[in-house]
Amino acid sequence: MMRNRGQGERMQYTRETAIARLMESYKAYYDIHMFSDGQIPVKARCDFFEHSQKYVLSKKAELWSADCEEFLYLLDIPHLTLAQYEKWRDYIYEDGMGRMQIGPGHMYSFITPVFICDICDEDARKALKKCRIYKSFHFSLHGWMDFHVAVVELSEGRVDANRSGHDTAKILKKVLYSQTNKNRRESQL
Length: 189
Hints:
Shape: globular
Low-confidence stretches: 1-9
Structural class: alpha/beta
CATH architecture: 3-Layer(aba) Sandwich
Number of strands: 12
Order of helices and strands: EEHEEEEHEEHEEEEH
Strand content: 35-45%
Helix content: 25-40%
CATH class: Alpha Beta
Radius of gyration: 19 Å
Distance between the termini: 22 Å
Mean pLDDT: 86
């Protein structure tokens, strides 16, 4: 459904359709775990694992190996307030830290909550943008963890993220709003 927003057309989503579209996009790269518990707003956790290694002549003569993982959480919250943001940021951080496999060969892990909401309070957006959670393990010999966080405010068609989540925000914009941008360019021609 298209709706005129003044500067051009913008695709309007419900929270459910936005989450469905994101999961459709992520399913080729992530293992998706759905949550049906109505008590928590987490609708899905998307896990990504990658193992790389280099060896000489035989796999037993390994030069190096690197394990990378990401845990991306999709949260469905109608009105994101500062208190809700802080509560679920901490919940996701604890859950993600418990899932990481830290040890020799671990390179990095990303924990990425994506808040899908209709309305986001300005103080919650500011806190989200200032969020900086980073942790190194054994002086980075066993890798590091970075916390990427993003919010999709559907009423405004706006995507914001913290500094670490810049790439996440770009992907969210591309998945949710790239067709809108294509239609706008075609109408200008």
